[in-house]
Amino acid sequence: MASEVERVALQFDGVELVKVEWNIHPITDQYVLTVKSASNTEVDKLKKFLNGELPSHMLHKRLKI
Question: What is the pTM of this model?
């Protein structure tokens, strides 16, 4: 599943590098997804793009750029 998120994020204009990490949140016991980009991509536009391209269970909980 992480490779699919990386593939989709790399399609966004300006994204050069993506790293997806799955960590179990110690308090809520939910998965936290971190996407890292090497570019100065606008966070809001990237979030909107990912929300439109990925199913809800694959959406990020946290996005780092």
Answer: 0.71
